[in-house]
Amino acid sequence: MPVSAGDSAPDFTLTNSADLEKVSLSDYRGKNVVLAFFPAAFTGVCQTELCTFRDSLSQFESLDAQVLAISADPPFSQKEFASQNSITFPVLSDTGREVINSYGVEFQNLAGVEGYNVAQRSVFVIDKEGNVSWSWIADAPPNEPPYSEVESAVKALA
Q1: What is the mean pLDDT of the chain?
Q2: Which pLDDT value is given to residue 44?
Q3: In the list 10, 42, 44, 66, which could disulfide-bond 102, CB 3.0-4.6 Å?
Q4: What is the predicted pLDDT for the residue at 65?
Q5: How far is 74 from 65, CA to CA, in rounded Å?
Q6: Taking the domains of the chain in order of start, what are their residue ranges?
Q7: Residues 6+ apart with CB under 8 A from 148
Q8: What digits encode the pLDDT tens for the residues 123-152?
């Protein structure tokens, strides 16, 4: 069952692809968090999504919100993906899919490839106390988040 508004956001510790340092959700307690799960680096829709969040980063920062992105890709692939797209917010690697599963957003057999399980495209807005205030989960991998709704959800916390 996916995490939804009103739930306590499951804490996690994952590897940041930029520097291989550990990052925990609890590191951002006291800030709002936009937590974006994406299926796979180097794919068109994922690139569009993360670049849209990149382009909105200053607006989120002005609302005291941190953007974090998570996929099942290894950190080395994510680092190159982030570098090629000038993504400066943390892109976290969940190769074991523990966090993906704790949020209830595992997408199985992407593109019909048996065993290729990834994160279902989804966004969770988490308040300063660590509670989910808004969530969106894609019906299908090509669907992008409703960016204006994400922004509105963060503004509502300000």
Answers
A1: 96
A2: 87
A3: 10
A4: 97
A5: 25
A6: 13-137
A7: none
A8: 999 999 999 999 999 999 899 999 999 999
Q: How far apart are CA 21 and CA 36, in angstroms?
A: 19
Torsion of the alpha carbons at 40, 45, 49 and 55, rounded to the nearest 10:
120
What single string gives the DSSP state of each residue in the chain? ----TTSBPPP-EEEETTT--EEEGGGGTTSEEEEEE-S-TTSHHHHHHHHHHHHTHHHHHHTTEEEEEEESS-HHHHHHHHHHTT--S-EEE-TT-HHHHHTT-EE-SGGG-TT--EEPPEEEEE-TTSBEEEEEE-SSTTPPP-HHHHHHHHHHH-
CATH number for the domain whose boundaries are 13-137: 3.40.30.10
Given the structure tokens 């382009």, which residue do they identify? 55
Angle at CA of residue 146, ends 80 and 22, nearest 5°: 35
Residue 1 burial (CB count, 10 A):
5
Whether the model pTM is above 0.85:
yes
Active-site pick, 9, 18, 25, 46: 46
Identify whether 51 is a catalytic site residue.
Answer: no
